[in-house]
Amino acid sequence: MTPTLRRPGFLPYLMTAPAHLLLALFILLPAAYVFALSFMQSSFGQDASFVGVENYAKLLRDRYFWMSVWNTFIVVNSVVYIELVLALLLTAVLPPPGLLCRVIVSIILLPYAVSEVVGVLLVKYMFDPEAGVVSYWLQAFGIPELEWTTQPSHALVLVVVLSVWLHMPFTFLIVYTARLGLPHELYEAARTDGANAWQRFRQVTLPLLMPAILVAVVFRYIFAFRIFPEVWLLTQGGPARQTEVLAVYLYKSAFRYYDYGMASATAWAMVVLSFLIAAAYLRSMYRRMFVHAR
Amino acid sequence: MSDKAASQFLIRIRGALNYAAIAALLTSGTALAAEKLVVMGHRVHQDVATKGQGGDITAVWRAANNAEIEWITLGIDPLRERLFRELSLGETAVNVGFILNAQATPKIAKLFTPLNDYLAKAPIANFSGISPPMVKSMTFDGKIYAIPLRHATQGLHFNEAYFKERGIDHPPKTVEQLIDYAKRLTYVQPDGNRVSGLVLGAYSHQIALLGAMGGSFITSDLKFGGPDKAIVAYYQTIRELFVAGVLPKAMPTFDQNTPLEWMMQGRAAMVIYPMARNAQMNDPKLSKFAGRVKTVAVPAAAGSGQAFAPGIFEAWAVGIPLNTKNKDLAWSLIRHLSAPQSTVSMAVNGNGPVRLAAYDDARLQESLPYASEERNALINGEPAIPGFDNAPKASDIWKENFEAVMLGLMTPADAAADLRKRVTALLR
């Protein structure tokens, strides 16, 4: 006889109410307020007035908005997949758990302890085209310089490199801890069947790590979409606004132009765009994790 | 504890409480007698008003009014952000606020109290002696919303040691000579230090050079300056200087302070920068070239009939929030700080004085080596960008086109036409 689930009573809802209240107060309400503001013209020294979808229309007509969407798309995809490849590579080559492994893992995680602002400023000085130590050694070895101050594409490359250095530990942690949880018996069985290292990685490790990879990818997409300090402190979106990303565009609307209606519309455009990107991965996760629970 | 000991203990406690109550009454009485004025500004405003060889200018006012000043000081952008939010509240505890002229748009200015009535009832001594262009930058629809108190006017700073090294014995007398010097002063020293002949950081420094070349960006009456010919010639010069390596490659990433750092470190031979920074550039604790950095007004073009380019300034003004209390006391402080003698004393403390007459004072001439140069620049002073609602967008468009031309992303002619088109739309 199949056991039937009892409907939860009032108590579980009461117990989770404080958490829901906090979520509502600090996430839902502000989000709703910003959504309402996106239909207003709002700035200092004037009452907010309803303008309908004018802010969204202005946004869609603005070529700088589309440029920032494109730049964000390039940076986010580069960052997420480079981090994933590096995390998988490091997971694959790490020695077995022991003192050496712990030391190496600590070194890999170190950049995560560095403040983003400090990290960006450090890199800015190291890559100074005329006095930076990295630029000096690149020149000394005859390696072409990264002309990030004058070439927008080079600037975006530096932003990607910086972001990967700062945030790769997050992806690595998720992938590595998932790897540690994989059953050893499967690897023994694969070895017994004559699989080499690459085959074991491809046929055993990768499929079993897929849920963790999806979680890491979704989280990194959402976080990377909001990339700001790397761009703002390096280039401020320049030169000539060519490296502007969505977060910089939003910042300028809000805190340089005091156009809170436009800034709110930009914020919601970012929510929709990041949801669309994450939706594909969330659907895949749902299929893998919950479809068999039905 | 025995009954006797307990009662003695209680008596002592009661006595201590009585003394405490009396002391509280006395001190609260003292605190009530002194009024408090909250002033929100930049740290430099507090410093020039309270410290230095000119003394504490607020001391006399505080004694006369039995008032204390609570200073809330913030960086330029945080100050703007915080002050504007305070101005937008139903009521604010801030009694006096400092604002930059470029931030004084009509909408923001109207969050301050119009001061015309105060000027009529309790006028500032020799009010007409305060720079008229600076007063005009705080005036909208005939109402004055803030009184200028400090200016930063662009000048040309040059490294005398590098001039000597390159065989140049006097500062440039024309802007054409300045450009020529910039090329000659771009070189690599024997120790590998690469010197840039000229560095321009923020939009106000760049616009100062445009002014020297006979052009302007946005006039005080909110028209696009031009002429286009001058702007095209300016952009051509900028591109030429960049290709020649005079303007450093890192310039698109400079912030407000980078040109100052470069002069102090010896990476730049000349910068266009606020004149008052001469002190920092010659500070032995900060600069490698203490005592060797000289400051002059930016020279005008040959054949312009002027020795100096118009002084491009940014001015801080002080106003009374519309939503504050105690406005009479606030006005009393502003009157005091704006008085001619206070202007001189604050200038001795390192403030840029907003009165031309202050430069005639012997103390100022002694303490500021560039006093007469700054006076010359101020005679025909103009704001870098006048205050209007889209001023931040206009300055960003300026920056964008400047960088685009410098890096060859746009031709000078296209950039000038684009600048006119986009900025004119903002001025409507």
Task: Give a structural overview.
The complex is a heterodimer of chains A (294) and B (428). Chain A has 294 residues and is an all-alpha fold. Chain A has a domain at 72-243: MetI-like (MetI-like fold, Orthogonal Bundle), CATH 1.10.3720. Chain A is built from 12 helices and 2 strands, in the order αββααααααααααα. Chain A has helices at residues 10-37, 54-61, 63-93, 99-109, 116-126, 133-140, 152-180, 184-192, 197-225, 229-234, 246-255, 260-290, and strands spanning 40-41, 49-50. Chain A is flat. Chain A starts with 9 loop residues before the first helix and ends with a helix. Helices cover 46% and strands 15% of the residues of chain B. The A-B interface holds A 43-46, 124, 128-131, 147, 149-150, 234-236, 238-242, 252, 255-258 and B 77, 81, 84-85, 87-88, 105, 107-108, 110-111, 194, 248-253, 267, 390, 392-393, 396, 399-401, 403-404, 406-407, 409-410.
CATH structural architecture of the domain at 72-243 in chain A: Orthogonal Bundle
| CATH class assignment of the domain at 72-243 in chain A | Mainly Alpha
Low-confidence runs of chain B: 27-31
Q: Gap between N and C termini of chain A, in Å?
A: 18 Å
Radius of gyration of chain A over all CA atoms, rounded: 24 Å
Residues in helix, % of chain B: 40-55%
Helicity level of chain A? over 70%
* Residue runs with pLDDT of under 50 for 5 or more positions of chain A: none
Beta-strand content bin of chain A:
under 5%
**What is the name of the CATH architecture of the largest domain in chain B?**
3-Layer(aba) Sandwich
Q: From the helix content, strand content and strand pairing of chain B, which structural class follows?
A: alpha+beta
> Which fold does the CATH topology of the largest domain in chain B refer to?
D-Maltodextrin-Binding Protein, domain 2
Average pLDDT number of chain B: 91
Percent of residues in β-strands of chain B: 15-25%
CATH superfamily of the largest domain in chain B: Periplasmic binding protein-like II
Mean pLDDT of chain A: 91
- How many strand segments of chain A? 2
Q: Gap between N and C termini of chain B, in Å? A: 87 Å
Strand order of the largest sheet of chain A: 1-2
